[in-house]
Specification:
By secondary structure, the protein is mainly α. The chain has helices spanning about 5-15, 15-35, 40-60, 70-90, 95-105, 115-125, 130-140, 145-155, 155-184.
Amino acid sequence: MEISNEELLRRCRKGDIDAFGELVRRHEGWLRGWLRSRLRDWTAADDLAQDAFVTAFKKIGDFRGDSSFETWLRGIAMNHFRNFIRKRREDCVGGVEELQGLMFQEVSEDGMSGSESLEALKECMDKVDGPSRDLLNARYAMGKTVREIEKETGRGYSALTMQLHRLRSSLADCVQQTLQAWQT
């Protein structure tokens, strides 16, 4: 007969490491899957799952049972996930990969080559001027982080990331329209 999660938790609170090991075996599959569905980097997702289990082990005495063990464990994993994203946010927001993606998202489905997409992007970039062009150059040509640009310009981090997002969206639309115009 299988031991219930509640019994395993009771044993864990008394210091039974094997009981906690059984909880890990029961829950690691769905927890890793849950994290992997949110991250492209499966190694990082596996590391976060391990971190969540370590935290759960350290705080098992704090688990009151108001919710299921799964819900509690998912909450711990969510906190680790948020911290991971927060630490990497600077790399993720407005990264060079996103701008490169403009050249190949949906555009390549139209049969256009990468060089045509690049030419369209250059044409669209020529239409951008002033502070927007300076921001794009600082972020993508010079490779500065959003935090560096924030310090240099005195503008807020959120304002900069939103402007970068809007600029990338506008450039994507422009590239797509330019390529469509070239096809006709």
